[in-house]
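Researcher: I'm preparing a figure for a lab meeting and need a structural model of a single chain. I don't have an experimental structure, so a prediction will have to do for now. The sequence is pasted below. Please return the structure as C-alpha cells so I can convert it later.
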Amino acid sequence: MPKSKVRKKDVYTAPPDRRTPVKVRGAGPSHPIYIVVMLGMMLLGLAWLVVNYLAGQEIPVMQDLGPWNFAIGFALMITGLLMTMRWR
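Model: Understood. Here is the structure written out cell by cell.
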C-alpha cells in the first residue's frame, strides 16, 4: 500500500490590516501611600471589632450602632482586602 504524503501547513499569521495595535501601559509599583492606606484599612477594621468586643458596651457611639459595628468592622477589612488586588 502506498504511503500517504505528509502535508506541511504554514503557521497562520493574521493580515496586517486586521491587527489593531494595543498600547501597553507600563505598570510600575504602587505608591507607598496606597500600601499604607490598604494596610491601615485592614488594621482599622480589626481594631474596630476588637474594641467592639472588649469595650463596646461602655462607648456610647458603639452602643447606638448595635449590630452595625460588625458591618463597619468587616467593611473596613474587606475594603483593605479588595485594595490588595490593585497592589503592584
